[in-house]
Amino acid sequence: MTSDVVIVGAGPTGLLLASELALAGVDPIVLERLPEPTGLSKAMALLGRSVDMLERRGLLDRFAERAPVGPPVFAHFAMLPLDLAVVAELGLRGILLPQAQTEEILLERALELGVKIRRNQEVDGLAQEQDGVTLTVGGQRVRARFVVGCDGGSSTVRKLAGIGFPGIPLAPATTSGLHRAGWHRRRRPSQAADRRAPALLRERNHAPERRILPGDHQ
Ligand SMILES: Cc1cc2nc3c(=O)[nH]c(=O)nc-3n(C[C@H](O)[C@H](O)[C@H](O)COP(=O)(O)OP(=O)(O)OC[C@H]3O[C@@H](n4cnc5c(N)ncnc54)[C@H](O)[C@@H]3O)c2cc1C
């Protein structure tokens, strides 16, 4: 198999990139190790610039058919709640939609644009050459001028290409304003305004527990 661009991974990144390349006149092939989508979801929502970007690409209507698009009632970063009231003027919008459905929409779009998606294709080797790249997929060779690793956080392509991802070791963090260090709390969006609604508390190294809290940060 030979292609101009091979995209490894049919997650949201690979599918959207494939559509973008197809719109630009490139004929990419997507290689995905899974025989079919799992239907499982990591992400449950899209927020802010992701929503704006989908609108710019003419895709937001497809998302809006499945879930309302509007001001987010709850947001967090690593389960630390973000108070969006302080950035209200930014006009952030969100969509509560499981990632599996996002992938369905992005897959539909890529197929409409003629993108070839090959499943059951796990990339396990990569050799960089003068004028391209040779991938191996279960003993088969695939040649491409360019390869893009969209194969997730533990990317095989990244490792095979010798690209590091060093990061920093986990270290204890301290947060001011919390009465119990390390507690994250979360309410369902529908309960966000109700200070007496049950909250999910998560303490480092302990199972989550449900509590009713009398006020903020207690
Ligand atoms: C618990 C959790 C909650 C999250 N919540 C949110 C959220 O609310 N909102 C949000 O925007 N983001 C959220 N994220 C982040 C979001 O899930 C990721 O940003 C997103 O999945 C990244 O997409 P991706 O396509 O880059 O990678 P992935 O989704 O990891 O897809 C990679 C694809 O590559 C395939 N693949 C892997 N290796 C190979 C190989 N060797 N050969 C061929 N195929 C391969 C995999 O099967 C997979 O289909 C969350 C993440 C987690 C873990």
Would you write up a description of this structure?
There is one protein chain. The chain is of the alpha+beta class. The chain has two domains: 2-160, FAD/NAD(P)-binding domain (3-Layer(bba) Sandwich); 178-218, no CATH class. The protein has five helices and 14 strands. The protein has helices spanning 12-23, 49-56, 60-64, 99-112, 156-160, and strands spanning 2-8, 29-31, 45-47, 69-70, 76-77, 80-81, 94-96, 116-118, 123-129, 132-137, 140-149, 184-186, 198-202, 209-212. The strands form four sheets. It has a six-stranded mixed sheet with strand order 8-2-1-11-10-9. A three-stranded antiparallel sheet has the order 3-7-4. Strand 13 (198-202) and strand 14 form a beta hairpin. The chain is globular and about 50 Å long. Bound molecules: flavin-adenine dinucleotide (FAD). The site of flavin-adenine dinucleotide has 24 residues, from helix 1 and strand 3.
Concise synopsis of the structure shown:
The protein has helices at 12-23, 49-56, 60-64, 99-112, 156-160; strands at residues 2-8, 29-31, 45-47, 69-70, 76-77, 80-81, 94-96, 116-118, 123-129, 132-137, 140-149, 184-186, 198-202, 209-212.
Spatial sequence of strands, sheet with the most strands:
8-2-1-11-10-9
Number of helices: 5
Total strand segments: 14
CATH architecture of the largest domain: 3-Layer(bba) Sandwich
Largest sheet, in brief, is: 6 strands, mixed
**What fraction of the residues are assigned to beta strands by DSSP?**
25-35%
The CATH topology of the largest domain comes to FAD/NAD(P)-binding domain
Structural class by SSE content: alpha+beta
- Just give the CATH class of the largest domain: Alpha Beta
Which segments are poorly predicted (pLDDT under 50) over 5 or more consecutive residues? 210-218
